[in-house]
């Protein structure tokens, strides 16, 4: 309502109110703002909103959910609406002049207008109460002021509200037009009014962009929902206490908690309904190049938005459509086209106001991001970003022809996380100047700027989220991974950098990989990064396919090689620069000779001593780490855009990537679980829907801390390989059970109260680095300092709790002799000695009081700067006391004292009788009966010094939090070490109690160490159960445990497993993925587990089911060693029977006679059982069943799920068809045909005694070698050629099988 607007008192004429944001993109003519010379009577009457104490406050902006606790719904009652403007008999009844009669209680609650003669203005309010004794009524005005009035003596008018509200105005539906907004009135207290005056949202000079703010434009004649209309702020005249002095005061209108839209979707329609196509930023497409966010005008949007915005966008924003070009004016077809930028035509730029130009300047450089544009207390979204806000955040469009919506500052974290989780990149543009600072800059520097300064303060994506409700609820890490590659013939070299920004964990590695990218696949399956950073057009096709296949829809970012994705040399320079700068800051805080000497030695060491050990080792490694350092460079460049690079490096926890390559598995300390093993054994994700239900991780996860859960995942992905490490961990787990279990449970109970300390510490560390949104120049209205203080005190409490819990658990060391637990729980050994540090902070200030008050009052000795300021204040106060004694002695009266009158302190109060003895330099300030009060020159000088000292004291209090956090961060290594120890103990206790959740007998596995290299690896178990499956999850049945023995002296190393369909073969194989319940379990160390089971394909990567199967098999053939464990389930099903059987037999032959590893091979090729029945290295077994005859001679099979010696004669597939519900006629026909096939092909000649001659073995070896070569190079050749090679190879294998069978 531009016509009813006043300028705020003391505000610059350049500054308009928050409600002017709606005209941000408007260039239409507007009415001038109200000036102080306009008719105050008309202004007051037109701007006074209707007040009803029972009314319901309506939101003023978009109803984005607030994180605060909502008020009870029953307290929000509907309130009457006052329509201002529009000369219609339906809008309001005319004001009724009051009669000269006496008014009593009958007028209480009525609306009234009272005329103030000195102000020459009418003021509206309502009669609140009536006092019978005085005959006066208490009138509460709409600005919150109250006055007792004799109505009979005042000039008053009654306001009769005949129309309570209009639900909706429809075009052509009435004979009048509403030109003003329906104002929902809420009388706020003075405290709220003063708080709202601090809103700098009215910071823009919209100039010619102002427009009339009517809810119904007479030209557009839009249909609007009046109930949801509201204003953000309103300026109302403040009564001058009948003195004639008027001033303005800005106050809030609307609800306290939620902010609604000033414009709702037409007809109340849901804006999520599709209806038209218009510009919109979509989540990044992970299958295409980075930054190709769709901003074209062909993206579907809701029907109401289509009607409102499509015409304008098609006309004014043509440069977003077919005419689109990047900042360098390149078209989309250009190979160097940059979709992240946009060229703005000069004519369009000239037509913009200063505020519009500022927004478009940011947007044109970041077209792949959604802008959160700060305006006062609100974040605004304009143009295509407004469509995203309406679609994804359920924000409502503001009125006007330009798309616009927003939300309050308090909802920032919630809405930021929502968009980032959905795959959007969010650019946070913050105010770095207040309107007052802008006006001062204009006056002092002659600046012509009409808008406050704004700067980019954050870029937030899936991988850079550091706060949010969903992040807090989910303990899983959200990894960002940078990948670079060097292809040299068949071998590949990968450099990777993996970052968990929320915990500042950085994993670096460089490794050789095979043509299948097995190592990279393993890493991706384990970590499941949510965001990928890669050099543009540098990765091979196979690597791109692996990134697609083994991730779950990550956000992909492509950086320009060298320029953005730095090489090793530039990375080292940047890293050294950051650490040297951090070191200089540390040195500036101390001046001891030891520190100066250490810094000099660092400089002499080429700056490497500044670096963490892991980084220094990588730099010294030269070419052997160049790709890892380049990956770190790509990560740092990317994080630099998000203002996270310096904080991350300074407090990062660096790790070298373990088991990064597979060339020398034996030397590695971990068992290798590749991507196929992780997926097929369902370690972290089930095969049904990809969640945790039914996984080994879910079964073993009884951790009570979020950081403990993350450590357990790491342990499961990399089990120890060396016998000593395994036994050490087993000993620690056993020591936490039995008699020590009560201590373990008490430890868990204490830790259950902990927040996610790993993330909380990272958050506190980031506060110490004043950059991004933490920078001091950023204008924030929420109490950011109080939130930071609460996080700091929470971190202190958490560290104290962890220290106490570990100390209590240390009591078990008296009755156990476990080296690992002794290391973890002994202070000064693995457990850091942090008690002196915690004592320092406990003595520094009251944690509880600071957390509740939001202010730190340091105790004496805690802060040198504050202590110095306090000392100076006390010295001056002592001088004043000493001076008082001198004046008493001078005047000869001990009754002379200091008094305070108003704002004047330390007034020397002298009895009237001594006035003649007062020195001439005494300055009389005030008096009272019998006394005179003076200031002397000395007192005035001391007061000046005291004022300055108290100012310095207050200033030191403001900065005390930053100084204390700085001191806290100096011990960041100890805090991280404490978290690491706590997490390890949490995981050990989780494993200790996990056996209680198994079904059946349990035992500690016996790990067999090899006395010599000729020892045959073995695996034996009795009553081997399943770690996850239980009777209660199997319906009526129960899980059947089995005995197994393979390997070792005199035992077959391989099991050839046959049996009926659904007989439990695959389930039996899956039991080998981890330690499982059993009466006895013995195992020689396993260096790697290979698992191939289940029919699946990778269509997106261009792989069929059969090709996927052979690709995984090829990795097994090339990488398995004698210590490996192999599980193959029905290999060869994806092709013809003869070809599949030939490949299956060749693979089995390779594992049994060449690799000589342990394993199991399940199959329905019963010919294999015949061929291997005389082989001593293969044990024929089957899953037992009972067969009976049903209707029509159809076999009915009862599954016994018991591992039994010998081969199974057939697979009984028709029985599965019966269970699936096929008709009896089909089943009977299938049974007959099955018998025909068995009669035709089922008779086999008895093989000669020596089937496997040396010649046949050599031929099989050659065949296997060819198979490996074809599969390994299948992606390097044309598809038709690969298939042709496989067909030839299958024919050769079939011939070889026929020769062996004759």
From TrEMBL:
Residues 1-22, 33-44 have a biased composition (Polar residues). It holds the Pfam family MutS_I. Residues 239-252 have a biased composition (Basic residues). Residues 60-73 have a biased composition (Pro residues). Residues 320-339 have a biased composition (Basic and acidic residues). Residues 1-83, 181-270, 320-342 are annotated as: Disordered. It comes from the Eukaryota. Signal peptide: none annotated. Keywords: ATP-binding, DNA damage, DNA repair, DNA-binding, Nucleotide-binding. Coiled coil: none annotated. One of its GO terms (molecular function) is ATP binding. One of its GO terms (biological process) is mismatch repair. Residues 23-32, 45-54 have a biased composition (Low complexity). GO terms for cellular component: nucleus. Residues 104-162 form the Tudor domain. Residues 691-1032 form the DNA mismatch repair protein MutS core domain. Residues 184-204, 213-234 have a biased composition (Acidic residues). Residues 1052-1235 form the DNA mismatch repair proteins mutS family domain. InterPro entries: DNA_mismatch_repair_MutS-lik_N, DNA_mismatch_repair_MutS/MSH, DNA_mismatch_repair_MutS_C, DNA_mismatch_repair_MutS_clamp, DNA_mismatch_repair_MutS_core, DNA_mismatch_repair_MutS_N, DNA_mismatch_repair_MutS_sf, DNA_mmatch_repair_MutS_con_dom. Belongs to the DNA mismatch repair MutS family. Component of the post-replicative DNA mismatch repair system (MMR). This is DNA mismatch repair protein. It comes from Morus notabilis.
């Amino acid at each position: 309502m531009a016509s009813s607007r006043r300028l705020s008192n003391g505000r610059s004429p350049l500054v308009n109110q928050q409600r002017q944001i709606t005209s941000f993109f408007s260039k239409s003519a507007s009415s001038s703002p109200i000036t102080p010379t306009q008719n105050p009577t008309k202004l007051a009457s037109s701007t006074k909103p209707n007040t009803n104490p029972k009314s319901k406050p309506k939101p003023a902006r978009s109803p984005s959910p607030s994180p605060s606790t909502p008020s009870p719904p029953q307290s929000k009652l509907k309130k009457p609406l006052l329509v201002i403007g529009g000369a219609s008999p339906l809008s309001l009844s005319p004001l009724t002049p009051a009669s000269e009669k006496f008014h009593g209680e009958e007028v209480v609650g009525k609306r009234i207008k009272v005329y103030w003669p000195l102000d020459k203005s009418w003021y509206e309010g309502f009669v609140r109460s009536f006092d019978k004794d005085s005959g006066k009524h208490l009138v509460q005005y709409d600005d919150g002021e109250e006055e007792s009035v004799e109505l009979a003596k005042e000039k008053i008018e009654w306001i009769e509200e005949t129309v309570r509200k209009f639900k909706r105005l429809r075009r052509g539906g009435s004979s009048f037009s509403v030109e003003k907004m329906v104002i929902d009135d809420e009388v706020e207290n003075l405290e709220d009014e003063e708080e709202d005056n601090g809103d700098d949202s009215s910071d823009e000079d919209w100039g010619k962009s102002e427009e009339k703010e009517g809810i119904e434009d007479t030209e557009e004649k839009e249909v609007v929902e009046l109930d949801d209309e509201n204003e953000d702020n309103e300026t109302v005249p403040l009564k001058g206490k009948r003195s004639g002095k008027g001033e303005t005061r800005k106050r809030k209108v609307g609800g306290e908690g939620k902010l609604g839209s000033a414009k709702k979707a037409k007809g109340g329609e849901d804006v999520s309904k599709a209806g038209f196509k218009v510009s919109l930023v979509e989540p990044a497409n992970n299958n295409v190049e980075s930054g190709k966010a769709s901003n074209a005008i062909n993206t579907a949007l809701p029907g109401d938005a289509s009607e409102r915005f499509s015409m304008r966008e098609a006309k004014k924003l043509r440069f977003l459509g077919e005419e689109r070009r990047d900042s360098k004016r390149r078209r989309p077809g250009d190979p160097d086209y940059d979709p992240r930028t946009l060229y703005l035509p000069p004519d369009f730029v000239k037509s913009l106001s200063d505020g519009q130009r500022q927004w478009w300047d940011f947007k044109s450089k970041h077209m792949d991001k959604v802008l959160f544009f700060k305006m006062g207390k609100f974040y605004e979204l304009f143009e295509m970003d407004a469509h995203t806000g309406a679609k994804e955040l359920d924000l409502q469009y503001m009125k006007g022809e330009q798309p616009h919506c927003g939300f309050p500052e308090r909802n920032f974290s919630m809405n930021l996380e929502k968009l980032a989780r959905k795959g959007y990149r969010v650019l946070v543009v913050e105010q770095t100047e207040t309107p007052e600072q802008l006006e001062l800059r204009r006056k002092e520097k002659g600046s012509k700027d009409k808008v406050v300064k704004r700067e980019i303060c954050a870029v937030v994506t899936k991988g850079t989220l550091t706060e949010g409700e969903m992040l807090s609820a989910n303990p899983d890490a959200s990894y960002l991974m940078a990948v670079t590659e060097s292809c040299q013939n068949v071998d590949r070299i990968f450099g990777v950098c993996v970052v968990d920004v929320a915990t500042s964990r950085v994993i670096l590695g460089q490794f050789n990989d095979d043509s299948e990218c097995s190592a990279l696949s393993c890493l991706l399956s384990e970590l499941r990064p949510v965001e990928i950073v890669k050099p543009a057009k540098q990765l091979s096709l196979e690597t791109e396919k692996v990134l697609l296949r083994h991730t779950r829809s990550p956000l992909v970012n492509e950086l320009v090689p060298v320029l953005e994705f730095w090489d090793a040399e530039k990375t080292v320079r940047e890293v050294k620069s950051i650490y040297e700068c951090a070191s200089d800051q540390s040195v500036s805080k101390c001046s001891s000779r030891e520190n100066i000497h250490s810094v000099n030695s660092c400089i002499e060491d080429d700056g490497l001593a500044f670096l963490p050990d892991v980084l220094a080792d990588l730099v010294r490694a030269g070419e052997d780490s160049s790709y890892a350092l380049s990956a770190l460079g790509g990560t740092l460049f990317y994080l630099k855009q998000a203002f996270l690079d310096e904080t991350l490096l300074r407090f990062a926890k660096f790790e070298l990537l373990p088991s990064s390559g597979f060339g020398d598995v034996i030397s590695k300390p971990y068992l290798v679980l590749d991507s196929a093993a992780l997926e097929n054994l369902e370690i972290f994700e089930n095969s049904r829907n990809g969640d945790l239900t039914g996984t080994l991780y879910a079964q073993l996860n009884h951790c009570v801390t979020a950081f403990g859960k993350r450590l357990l995942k790491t342990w499961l992905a990399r089990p120890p390989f060396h016998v000593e490490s395994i036994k050490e961990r087993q000993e620690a787990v056993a020591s936490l059970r039995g008699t020590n279990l009560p201590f373990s449970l008490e430890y868990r109970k204490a830790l259950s109260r902990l927040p996610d300390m790993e993330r909380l510490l990272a958050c506190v560390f980031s506060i110490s680095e004043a950059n991004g949104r933490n920078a001091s120049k950023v204008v924030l209205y929420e109490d950011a300092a109080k939130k930071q203080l609460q996080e700091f005190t929470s971190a202190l409490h958490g560290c104290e709790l962890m220290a106490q819990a570990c100390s209590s658990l240390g009591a078990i060391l008296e009755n156990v002799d476990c080296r690992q637990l002794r290391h973890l729980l002994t202070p000064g050994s693995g457990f850091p000695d942090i008690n002196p540090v915690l004592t320092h902070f406990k003595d520094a200030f009251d944690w509880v009081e600071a957390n509740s008050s939001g202010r730190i009052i340091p105790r004496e000795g805690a802060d040198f700067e504050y202590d110095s300021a306090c000392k100076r204040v006390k010295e001056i106060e002592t001088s004043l006391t000493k001076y008082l004694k001198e004046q008493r002695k001078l005047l000869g009266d001990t009754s002379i004292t200091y008094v305070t009158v108003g704002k004047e302190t330390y007034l020397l109060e002298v009895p009237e009788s001594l006035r003649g003895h007062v020195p001439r330099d005494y300055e009389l300030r005030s008096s009272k009966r019998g006394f005179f009060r003076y200031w002397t020159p000395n007192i005035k000088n001391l007061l000046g010094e005291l004022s300055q000292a108290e100012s310095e004291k207050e200033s030191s209090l403001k900065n005390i939090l930053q100084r204390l956090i700085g001191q806290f961060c100096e011990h960041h290594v100890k805090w991280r070490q404490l978290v690491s120890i706590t997490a390890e103990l949490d995981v050990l206790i989780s494993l200790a109690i996990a056996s209680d959740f198994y079904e059946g007998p349990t035992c500690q596995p016996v790990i067999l160490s090899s006395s010599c290299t000729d020892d045959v690896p073995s695996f034996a178990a009795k009553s081997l159960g399943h770690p996850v499956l239980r009777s209660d999850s199997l319906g009526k049945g129960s899980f059947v445990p089995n005995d197994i023995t393979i390997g070792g002296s005199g035992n077959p190393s391989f099991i050839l497993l046959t049996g009926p369909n659904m007989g439990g073969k695959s389930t039996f194989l899956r039991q080998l993925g981890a330690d499982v319940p059993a009466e006895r379990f013995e195992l020689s160390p396993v260096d790697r587990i290979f698992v191939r089971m289940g029919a699946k394909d990778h269509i997106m990567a261009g792989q069929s089911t059969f090709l996927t199967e052979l690709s995984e098999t090829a990795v097994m053939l090339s990488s398995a060693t004698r210590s490996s464990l192999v599980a193959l389930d029905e290999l060869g099903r994806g092709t013809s029977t003869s070809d599949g059987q030939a490949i299956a037999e060749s693979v089995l032959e390779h594992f049994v006679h060449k690799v000589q590893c342990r394993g199991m091979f399940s199959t329905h090729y019963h010919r294999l059982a015949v061929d291997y029945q005389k082989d001593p290295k293969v044990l024929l077994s089957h899953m037992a069943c009972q067969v009976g005859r049903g209707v029509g001679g159809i076999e009915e099979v009862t599954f016994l799920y018991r591992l039994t010696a010998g081969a199974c004669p057939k697979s009984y597939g028709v029985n599965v068809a019966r269970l699936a519900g096929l008709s009896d006629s089909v089943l009977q026909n299938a049974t007959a045909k099955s018998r025909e096939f068995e009669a035709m092909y089922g008779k086999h000649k008895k093989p000669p005694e020596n089937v496997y001659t040396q010649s046949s073995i050599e031929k099989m070896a050659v065949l296997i070698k060819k198979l490996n070569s074809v599969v390994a190079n299948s992606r390097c050749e044309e598809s038709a050629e690969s298939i042709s090679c496989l067909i030839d190879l299958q024919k050769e294998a079939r011939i070889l099988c026929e020769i062996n069978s004759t």
